[in-house]
Amino acid sequence: MLNIGCHLSSSKGFESMIQEAISIDANTFQFFTRNPRGSKAKDLDSKDIEKFLDIFKKEKFRPILAHAPYTLNACSSDKRIREFALMTMKDDLMRMEYVPYNFYNFHPGNHVGQGVEEGINHIVDLLNEILTEEQTTTVLLETMSGKGSEVGSKFEEIKEIIDRVHLKEKLGVCLDTCHIYDAGYDIINNLDEVVREFDAVIGLERLHFIHLNDSMNQIGSKKDRHQKIGEGFLGLDPIVNVINHPKLKDCIFILETPNDVEGYGKEIALLRSLYKK
To answer: For strand 207-212 and strand 171-176, is the pairing parallel, antiparallel, or unpaired?
Structure first.
């Protein structure tokens, strides 16, 4: 079965998101924990969460993915910005325990001229401070495009972060097809080799989610601009190859294409029709 969903607005709560996902034949979804360009989070609604969990169990939904706000920079050269990231992520992980055994994704950040190694040092320090043995949420590092001074555009950078975190069993990876293509990984002509490289460097057991996006730019552009499925430089066939790859097809796929809910529904229907059971 193809496990697929899309990014939904969390403004109306968990019950609304899962009902919206069901309406477009999705069996998972992604949402922002708070304003993606700010820091404010909605108050938790216990009745809304209870209704969500009831539907989640009845519909046999796959795990959902929370996304940290874009404003976080865990490896900033500014200590205050790093402290803001730590405070926000710690609060997000506390809130995620109300919907236990799900996933939380974040962008590793931008080293802003310090160099990749110093950036990784900061990310490791943050993760070692916020992760706890008691948490049920798995934290995912997202693969990045390499735009600006981004950390995480190479599999080796993700590996180094994971290797240096004490509670590495609480960590995993979210692979983004647009990001890795823009970073220079040729998933059009050499998907098998990219999968083998990911497995050799990081380990496929760490891969839990895949952001399924086409790209507005060519390979190696380091631009990070998502496009609708089949309308970018990746094209439909390579994306279909991703969802049908024997070592990837059981992952959970999330669409982050420039779409509304109706558009996501059409993409989900298309990809379900092309998925080989």
So the answer is: parallel
| Span 184-217, pLDDT tens digits | 999 999 999 999 999 999 999 999 999 999 999 9
Which residues lie below 8 Å from residue 189, measured CB to CB, with a gap of 6+?
none
What's 150's DSSP letter?
A: B
Q: Are β-strands 138-142 and 65-67 bridged in parallel, bridged antiparallel, or unpaired? A: unpaired
At 158-178, the pLDDT tens digits run 999 999 999 999 999 999 999
Please state, as a whole number, how many other Cβ atoms lie within 10 Å of the Cβ of residue 108.
27
> HSE on the CB side for 27, CA within 13 Å?
14
Whether 96 contacts 105, CB under 8 Å: no
The C-alpha atoms of residue 97 and residue 101 are separated, in whole angstroms, by 8
Please indicate, yes or no, whether the overall pTM of this predicted structure exceeds 0.90: yes
DSSP 49: H
The H-assigned helical ranges of the chain are 14-23, 46-58, 79-96, 116-130, 155-164, 177-183, 191-201, 236-244, 261-274
